[in-house]
Amino acid sequence: MGKLMIVNGSPRAPKSNSKLYIQAFLSGWSGAYELYSLTQRRQEDCLASLEQCSDLLLVFPLYTDGLPSGLMAFLQALLAQPPSHPLRVHMAINCGFLEPSQNDVAVDMIRLFCKRGGHSFGACLRISCGEAFPTTPFMAIARRKLRKLASAIAKGRPVQLTASMPLTKRMFLRAAQRYWLGRGRSFGVSEEEMSTLEIEGP
Ligand SMILES: Cc1cc2nc3c(=O)[nH]c(=O)nc-3n(C[C@H](O)[C@H](O)[C@H](O)COP(=O)(O)O)c2cc1C
């Protein structure tokens, strides 16, 4: 294969979980690559560089069961200004909830993009508990899957992988509750305030 373009599609790219997942991916990648974050706002440079790439890896978070708007805009620009050859498009998507299947609609959106742009859909990794993995020893699970993704892309294998934490729903809910209430407290927001649908006051 030729060069791989890795795109970080997180709106908070420099502080994102996607960045940490890219670092883990690169620990298993020995081929040539370029790295571009959508927050760099140099989309034209990235589109031009894709002319020298055979593969594109999109690494991004799930936002409201779909793609972040910046990534949508990037894909639209890629449809409007395609490289002169089709790409193999791979993805590593991470979501906050417990089930990797939460990512399925977003995976279908990338499939549709490939169909419309004449690109081929390659390897895919669906990560759940995406916010939690990097801060726990379970990160070893995600790292192993990202290295597997790297190996599959290098060998041209269109694998479908998942990475999730070995937690029951009850354990996940308890940990999430503790985390979000703690976050609320650090911003001076009580549990009662966090539970209300009144976000703008009367
Ligand atoms: C605006 C917004 C929408 C989100 N929507 C979902 C969602 O629909 N389902 C889900 O499981 N996680 C959702 N999340 C959680 C993110 O996917 C998760 O925090 C992810 O790890 C962020 O990755 P990043 O740091 O690479 O941006 C959402 C987060 C934000 C900020």
List the helices and strands and how they pair.
Layout: E1 3-8, H1 17-26, E2 33-37, H2 43-49, E3 53-61, H3 69-80, E4 88-94, H4 104-117, E5 120-127, H5 139-155, E6 160-163, H6 169-186, H7 191-195
Parallel strand pairs: 1-2, 1-3, 3-4, 4-5, 5-6
The structure holds flavin mononucleotide (FMN).
What does this protein look like?
By secondary structure, this protein is of the alpha/beta class. It folds into two domains: 165 residues, Flavodoxin domain (Rossmann fold, 3-Layer(aba) Sandwich); 35 residues, no CATH class. 41% of the residues lie in helices and 19% in strands. A six-stranded parallel beta sheet has the order 2-1-3-4-5-6, sandwiched between helices. Strand 1, helix 1 and strand 2 form a beta-alpha-beta unit. Helix 1 crosses helix 5. The longest helix has 18 residues. The termini are far apart. The mean pLDDT is 96. The structure holds flavin mononucleotide. The site of flavin mononucleotide (FMN) has 17 residues, from helix 1. The site of flavin mononucleotide has 17 residues, from helix 1.
